[in-house]
Design brief:
The protein is α/β, with parallel strands linked by helices and 480 residues long. The chain contains 19 helices and 13 strands.
C-alpha cells in the first residue's frame, strides 16, 4: 500500500543477545510489509557484529544499522552481573546521543524517508519518552512472555496484598496471590527473580523502581508488542489488554522470519555440530543443552551438570560460551568427553539454535527458559528441561511444567541427581512428548497465513502506517 511505503520505523533493542534476536525478526516482518527500518545498535555491539550487519543491510535496501555509544568503557565485559550498570549508562549517557540522532533522522536522508515511528525495547523507557518529546509516536516492545509482563505489572498489587516482599527465609514454593489468572499454580519462586531482592518497601531503587518505570512506559506508549500468541497466553494477554492502550501478540516472530541467526549473533556460530548430529543413528536420542547468552555458571554447577548429563547415558550437545568456562572446567570437560567418547558428547561455543532444535536427533532441550529459547523449543515440539536463573525465566519455566506441560521445571536446583532424573523423564515420557507435539502444531497454525499471529502482525502494520501517516502530516492520529 502506498502509505506503508512512506513509513520508516526506528527500532531500538536493549543491547543483549535475546533482545537483538527478537528485534531482528520483528524488523524482517516490517521489511516484508514494505516499511523502511533503521535498526539502532550500541557502538560496542555493532563492532562485534562486523560483516554480519553489513551483509544484512545489503540484503535489503530498506534496512540500515546505526549505533549510539552505551557509555561504558570498551573493555567492560558487559556480563549479566553488570546489566544494571549498562542499563543505567544507556539511560544517562546514551539517551543524549539517541535524541540527537532521532532528531536528525526526522528530516530523512541517505535514501531513507524521515523516521515516522519508534519501536522501543520496553526495558528502556527513555526511548519512548524521547521519541514522544520529539513528536515521533512510540510503541513499546517487550521481548519477554506476556505472563512475565503481567507479573511485573502486578507488583503494586502484590505489595498491597502483602505477598511482597517475601519473608526472610520463607518457603519459595508457597503459593502466591495477586497475578491475575495464575492464582491456581503460581508460587513465590515463579515470580521474576528480581522480586526476591525486594526488602521492605516498593521504593527499593535497583528493583522496584526499575520495574515501575518499565511498566509505566509500556502503559503510556501508543501500544505494546509481545512476541507471543494467544494460543499460548490467552489469559495473560486478556489482562494486559485491560491495562495498555493496545496490545499486539505477533509471535513467535522467529517462526515467521527468514532472517538468519548469524545476522544478529554476537558470537561466531559453530555449525560443525550439525555434522555430529547427522552422524547420530537414533532419532530423538540427543540432549541439547544451552543456558543462553548471559549465564555464567560456577565450577560446582558446571560439575553437577556434567556428571548428571553423563549419567543419563544419552549423547549430548552442549553450548558452552567461552566466557562461561575457566581452566579447571575446561580440563574437567575434556576428561569427561574422553571417558564417554566423542560420539556421545559434542561441545561448541555457539550454534544456530533453530537448526539444532529441528534436527531429527534432538530429543530434549535443557534450557535456561529465556523466552526466545522457550518459544523456539515450543515451535519445534521438543520436550524441555528448565533451569531458570534470571529475570523472567522462572515464570516461563513454571508455564512449561505446570500449564503447557511440554517439559519439566528443575526450579533453580543444580544437582547431578536432579539433572539426570529430569533429563531422563523428559526424554522418555510419552505424555510430555505428546503435549509438546500438540503445542507445536497449534503455534504453527497461529503463524501460518491467516493464523492468529499473522493477522495480528497485519493489524500492527496498519497501526504503524496510520501513526506514520499522521506523524508525517503533523496531525494527531486516532491512535494517540
Amino acid at each position: 500500500m502506498a502509505a506503508a511505503a512512506a513509513a520508516h520505523v526506528l527500532v531500538f533493542p536493549a543491547p543483549a543477545q535475546g533482545h537483538l534476536n527478537s528485534f531482528l525478526h520483528f524488523s524482517t516482518g516490517l521489511l516484508r510489509a514494505g516499511l523502511h527500518v533503521t535498526f539502532l545498535h550500541t557502538d560496542h555491539n555493532l563492532r562485534r557484529l562486523g560483516t554480519a550487519a553489513a551483509e544484512a543491510t545489503v540484503a535489503s535496501p530498506r534496512l540500515r544499522f546505526l549505533s549510539v555509544p552505551d557509555g561504558l568503557p570498551d573493555d567492560d565485559p558487559r556480563t549479566v552481573d553488570g546489566l544494571p550498570e549498562l542499563m543505567e549508562s544507556l539511560r544517562t549517557k546514551a539517551s543524549a546521543s539517541y535524541r540527537a540522532l532521532l532528531a536528525s533522522l526526522r528530516a530523512g536522508g541517505g535514501g531513507f524517508p524521515p523516521v515516522t515511528c519508534v519501536v522501543a525495547d520496553g526495558i528502556m523507557p527513555f526511548v519512548v519518552d524521547v521519541a514522544e518529546e520529539l513528536g515521533v509516536p512510540a510503541i513499546s516492545f517487550r521481548t519477554v512472555s506476556a505472563c512475565a509482563v503481567l507479573a511485573y505489572l502486578s507488583v503494586p498489587k502484590l505489595i498491597a496484598l502483602g505477598e511482597l516482599p517475601f519473608p526472610e527465609g520463607g518457603d519459595l514454593d508457597a503459593p502466591i496471590r495477586g497475578v491475575p489468572g495464575m492464582e491456581s499454580f503460581l508460587r513465590r519462586r515463579d515470580l521474576p527473580i528480581q522480586f526476591r531482592q525486594l526488602t521492605s518497601t516498593y521504593e527499593e531503587p535497583l528493583v522496584a523502581a526499575v520495574v515501575a518505570a518499565t511498566v509505566h512506559s509500556c502503559c503510556k506508549a501508543r501500544a505494546l508488542i509481545v512476541n507471543t500468541t494467544t494460543s499460548l497466553e490467552r489469559s495473560s494477554l486478556g489482562h494486559l489488554t485491560q491495562e495498555m492502550r493496545d496490545v499486539f501478540a505477533v509471535g513467535p516472530l522467529h517462526a515467521m522470519s527468514p532472517a538468519p541467526a548469524v545476522a544478529s549473533s554476537l558470537w561466531r556460530p559453530d555449525d560443525g555440530c550439525m555434522a555430529w548430529l547427522d552422524n547420530q543413528q537414533a532419532e530423538r536420542a540427543v540432549v541439547y543443552i544451552s543456558l543462553g547468552s548471559l549465564a555464567v555458571i560456577s565450577h560446582e554447577q558446571f560439575t553437577e551438570f556434567l556428571h548428571g548429563l553423563v549419567a543419563t547415558g544419552y549423547p549430548f550437545l552442549w553450548v558452552l560460551r567461552p566466557d562461561m568456562l575457566v581452566a579447571s572446567q575446561d580440563a574437567a570437560l575434556r576428561e569427561a568427553i574422553g571417558a564417554v567418547g566423542k560420539d556421545r558428547a559434542c561441545v561448541v561455543p555457539w550454534v544456530p539454535q533453530r537448526d539444532v532444535l529441528r534436527h531429527r536427533a534432538v530429543g530434549c532441550f535443557l534450557t535456561h527458559s529465556g523466552w526466545n529459547s522457550t518459544i523456539e523449543g515450543i515451535v519445534e515440539g521438543v520436550p524441555m528441561v528448565c533451569w531458570p536463573f534470571f529475570a523472567d525465566q522462572q515464570i516461563n519455566s513454571r508455564f512449561v511444567g505446570a500449564v503447557w506441560r511440554n517439559g519439566l521445571d528443575m526450579k533453580d536446583v543444580c544437582d547431578r541427581v536432579v539433572v539426570e532424573s529430569t533429563v531422563r523423564e523428559a526424554m522418555e515420557s510419552e505424555e510430555i512428548r505428546r503435549s509438546a507435539h500438540a503445542l507445536a502444531e497449534q503455534v504453527k497454525r497461529d503463524v501460518a497465513d491467516d493464523g492468529a499471529s499473522a493477522l495480528e502482525f497485519k493489524r500492527l502494520i496498519s497501526f504503524i502506517t496510520e501513526l506514520s501517516t499522521s506523524a508525517a502530516q503533523g496531525t494527531p492520529s486516532s491512535k494517540s
